Amino acid sequence: MSQLLCTRWGTLLKGHPNWQGKLPTAADCYRYVLQNPATDLALTAPKSRQQLEANLTVLHTPLLSAQEVASWQEYGDLIYGTGQDAFDTQWI
């Protein structure tokens, strides 16, 4: 079973100094993760009923376009860094 940290403990929602595009919402992150056929489980940790309802909208949202996938992948690469160490987000 594949499990992913969809928002990377919220860091994907905070932005990056080198990112000029729109910031993802938690729902955007869940849509991205659920797009991958290897994903069996996507965890969510809403703080309110409103956040829970927003997160659940992804179950009724169309799949991301190839352009959206590429854009979110580019953004994720900025957040995740090179992956050369355990937590490669020194810019935070």
Radius of gyration: 13 Å
What is the CA-CA span between the terminal residues? Answer: 30 Å
Order of helices and strands: EHEHH
Shape: globular
Residue-averaged pLDDT: 82
How many β-strand runs?
Answer: 2
Strand order of the biggest β-sheet: 1-2
Give a verbal description of the structure.
This protein is mainly α and 92 residues long. The chain has three helices and two strands. 36% of the residues lie in helices and 4% in strands. The protein has a two-stranded parallel sheet. The mean pLDDT is 82.
Question: Which helices and strands appear, and what pairs or packs with what?
Answer:
Elements (H helix, E strand, L loop, with lengths): L2 E2 L21 H10 L5 E2 L6 H8 L9 H15 L12
Parallel strand pairs: 1-2
Which descriptors apply to this entry?
single chain, 92 residues, mainly alpha, two-stranded parallel ribbon, 36% helix, globular
Summarize the structure.
The N and C termini lie far apart (30 Å).
